[in-house]
Design goal:
alpha+beta, Arc Repressor Mutant, subunit A, Beta-Lactamase, 3 domains, five-stranded antiparallel β-sheet, three-stranded antiparallel β-sheet
């Protein structure tokens, strides 16, 4: 911020907060009524300087000015004061999570809550399969030469996969007993590596039951979804904002909300950065013509980064309000998942 004078910082801050509140270009007369003790002419000179520095732009010659992505980035990184959530707000979030049942609705209910809290669209990305912890693995004979693998995660998610296998009921019982000793508390990624390693062992290759068990186990966890589910709640709240009232803006926004892969890539950055991150405007590429911002945070499962949660809104989002709400929701998700992860005993990976 060395290039900005104290007066420039003051007026830029006032311009950003006014634009966030109204969504309208901000003029000198408006700012002069907001407690800035300068004449409108002096304010216009500062606004002109800020425009030259790339912090503001003027949509029309007769209109006021609006903050650029550069201004919002400076505001987020160095100017805003993140609001502390009240005890009542924290209690409300924890109460809502206490009412959520484990299973596939967990993501959707989380998205609904965050959308209600922030007044814009919320996005929740499920844990990637590699990070999900296994609770049960069962095989059910269906057709001759085929079994149904039922993979149950500690978060309540269930995945079913048909596998080719010639196996009878007595063999399946032995397979289940053996796998029960090794799967508990391990992630799919860990199990995949473990099964591959065990199958390379001469002792396992010489034992028909162990060989069959680890072959079926490896096939089941490898067949589990590698992609992530994406849930977006509160689309109507975002679509109803004035920024997107024009036909072109509305179309761009609808297209952006359908680009799940692009949204996931942006939220994946939160997995690497840690904490709560903000992507503003063109930092997100061409998503909705650069008119969107994403605030995201990662949530954890047993100390491991699992997935991400965030909100999608206009660049004039109320960041001091939204950032702590996203952080609190991510923390509540982590607590929810870990409470439902049963205590487990780590086994010796080399125990065949």
């Amino acid at each position: 911020m060395a290039e900005l004078s104290p007066r420039g910082k003051q007026i830029l801050y006032a311009c950003i907060t006014e634009f966030v509140a109204t969504g309208e270009p901000v003029g000198s007369r408006t700012l002069s009524k907001r407690g800035i003790e300068l004449s409108p002419a002096s304010i216009r000179n500062v606004l002109s300087d800020l425009e030259e520095l790339g912090y503001l732009h003027q949509p029309h010659t007769s209109a006021g000015r609006v903050p650029t992505d550069k201004a919002f980035r400076l505001f987020i990184d160095a100017m805003m004061e993140v609001r502390q959530l009240t005890d009542a707000e924290n209690a409300h979030i924890m109460h809502r999570f206490a009412e959520i049942e484990p299973g596939p609705n967990f993501l959707r209910e989380t998205g609904k809550l965050l959308s209600e809290l922030t007044g814009t669209a919320a996005v929740v990305v499920s844990p990637k399969a590699e990070t999900m912890t296994l609770k049960h693995l069962r095989f059910i004979r269906t057709l001759p030469g085929e079994v149904l693998a039922v993979v149950v995660m500690t978060n309540g998610t269930v995945q079913n996969r048909f596998l080719k296998a010639e196996v009878n009921e007595d063999e399946l019982q032995k397979v289940h007993n053996l796998l029960d000793d090794v799967i508990e508390g391990r992630s799919l990624g860990e199990l995949r590596e473990l099964f591959v390693r065990r199958l390379q062992s001469e002792r396992v290759q010489a034992d028909d039951v162990k060989k069959r068990a680890f072959e079926l186990g490896e096939a089941a966890v490898s067949a589990a979804d590698k992609g992530a589910d994406v849930v977006i709640e509160g689309r109507a709240k975002l679509l109803g904002l004035p920024e997107f009232s024009a036909a072109a803006g509305f179309k761009d926004l609808v297209s952006a909300l359908d680009e799940a892969e692009a949204i996931v890539r942006l939220l994946d950055a939160t997995l690497e950065a840690g904490g709560t991150t903000v992507v503003v405007g063109r930092e997100a590429g061409d998503l909705a013509g650069g008119l969107l911002a994403i605030v995201g945070a990662s949530y954890r499962n047993q100390g491991r980064t699992a997935g991400s949660v965030g909100v999608i809104g206009p660049t004039r989002m109320n960041y001091p309000k939204v950032v702590p709400l996203v952080t609190a929701t991510a923390n509540a998700m982590s607590s929810f998942i870990e409470r439902r992860s049963e205590p487990h005993t780590r086994h010796n990976d080399d125990d065949d």
